[in-house]
Amino acid sequence: MALGEMNNGNDSEFIPSNLNTVLTTFTDSDEVVMNTSAAGYHRKPLSALWSWIKSKMDDEIITITKSITITTDWQDTGIKGNDIPGFGTYAVQFCGGNPTISICGDYFSGIMTWYNGGTNNEDADEISLHCAGHARNGQLFYLRTLRHGRGGDDLALQIKGSSAASSADIFTFKFRKLI
C-alpha cells in the first residue's frame, strides 16, 4: 500500500497528524501535499516525507560500544537487561576484532529476541550470524543470549571467537527493534 493510501487526511498509525499526507496525482516535480498546520495543506517535495521517515528509522537504532578481549569461551559483552528496552525481536549488527584476531572490516549480523525482565533459569540461545566485509581470514565470532536465575542480571548478551585475541578491541553493537 502506498503511503498516500495509508493516510488520506486522517490521523494514522503510520504518519503523525502534523504530517498528514496525501499523494497527489503525477506531477513533474514529484511533490506531496502535507498538512503541516491547522492552516491547511501545503505542497512539499517528496524528499520532505522521506527525510521524516529516515529520521524515525535512525532514532530507533541503539548503539552500544564495548571494549572486549575475545576468548574461545563465552563471556559477557556487558550488554544486559535494560540496555536494550522492552521485549521483542531485534536485528543485531556488530563489528570489531581488528587487528587482535585478524578480522578486517567485517560486519556480523543476526536476528535475536530480547527480554529485559526477570528470567528464571540459566538457558542460553545462540544467535545465528551472517558476516561480510573486507576479510575475516578464517575467523568467526559467535553471539548468544544467556538467562540468569532470579535476582541475577536478567538476560545478557555473550560473545566468543573462533580464536583468542591477544588484547582488547573496541566492538560496536547496533540493535533495531523489528517487532
Share of helix, binned? 10-25%
Radius of gyration: 22 Å
Percentage of residues in strands:
over 45%
Shape: flat
Please provide the ordered H/E string of secondary-structure elements: HEEEHEEEEEEEEE
Distance between the ends: 19 Å
Discrete helix count: 2
Helix vs. strand class: mainly beta
Q: Strand count, sense and closure of the main sheet?
A: 5 strands, antiparallel
> Strand sequence of the main sheet, in spatial order?
4-12-6-7-9
Mean pLDDT: 78
Low-confidence stretches: 1-12, 23-27
Number of strands: 12
Features:
single chain; 179 residues; mainly beta; 5-stranded antiparallel sheet; 4-stranded antiparallel sheet; 2 helices; flat; disordered N terminus
Task: Summarize this structure briefly.
The chain has 179 residues and is mainly beta. It has 2 helices and 12 strands, in the order H-E-E-E-H-E-E-E-E-E-E-E-E-E.
Can you describe this structure?
It is a single chain. This protein is mainly beta. It is built from 2 helices and 12 strands, in the order αβββαβββββββββ. The strands form 3 sheets. Strands 4-12-6-7-9 form a 5-stranded antiparallel β-sheet. The protein has a 4-stranded antiparallel β-sheet with strand order 5-11-10-8, with no helix packed on it. Strand 1 (20-23) and strand 2 (31-37) form a beta hairpin. The relative contact order is 0.20.
